[in-house]
Amino acid sequence: MVRHGYAALLFPRVKPPIRLRRPALEILESRRLLSDVRWIAPTSGDWNTPVDWSTGQTPGPGDNVAIDVPGVTVTVSSGTETVGSITSSDPLVISAGSLTVSSGASTFTGGLTMTGGSLTADG
């Protein structure tokens, strides 16, 4: 209905209220995301020392490992370790035990030294 003149002044057109919709949640499939675990110790040390890692525990199969503290060397000296990937700008030494990199591309710009043990890479 079009209003003209005096009626338009007395009864201005009012817009209907805006209806807000509730946000909908979508159910997603479960996914396992690799987490980032960083070497945080300011000095060199053994891979198996939990306090030297950002999570307070040694890296596991679902972890992306980053070793980037200048001047440190991280040594795998025992045990069987498995991680998702490793990016290291510091030297990594495998002197005993084994290290498996299971799922991601890895980079060792600080050098990799093997004096014993084994390294297996599947990425």
Topology:
Blueprint: H1 6-10, E1 35-38, E2 45-46, E3 63-67, E4 74-76, E5 80-83, E6 85-88, E7 92-94, E8 98-101, E9 107-108, E10 112-114, E11 118-121
Parallel strand pairs: 1-3, 2-4, 3-6, 4-7, 5-8, 6-9, 7-10, 8-11
Fold and architecture overview:
The chain contains 1 helix and 11 strands. It is mostly beta strands and 123 residues long. A 4-stranded parallel beta sheet has the order 1-3-6-9, with no helix packed on it.
Number of helix segments?
1
Biggest sheet, in brief?
Answer: 4 strands, parallel
- H/E topology pattern: HEEEEEEEEEEE
The proportion of residues in beta strands is 25-35%
- Helix-and-strand structural type: mainly beta
How much helix is in the residues? under 10%
What average pLDDT do the residues reach?
85
Name the strands of the widest sheet in spatial order. Answer: 1-3-6-9
* Radius of gyration, CA atoms, in whole angstroms: 29 Å
Distance between the termini: 70 Å
> What is the number of E strands?
11
Contiguous runs where pLDDT drops below 50 for at least 5 residues: none
Question: What is the structure about, briefly put?
Answer:
The chain is mostly beta strands.
Keywords:
mainly beta, four-stranded parallel beta sheet, 11 strands
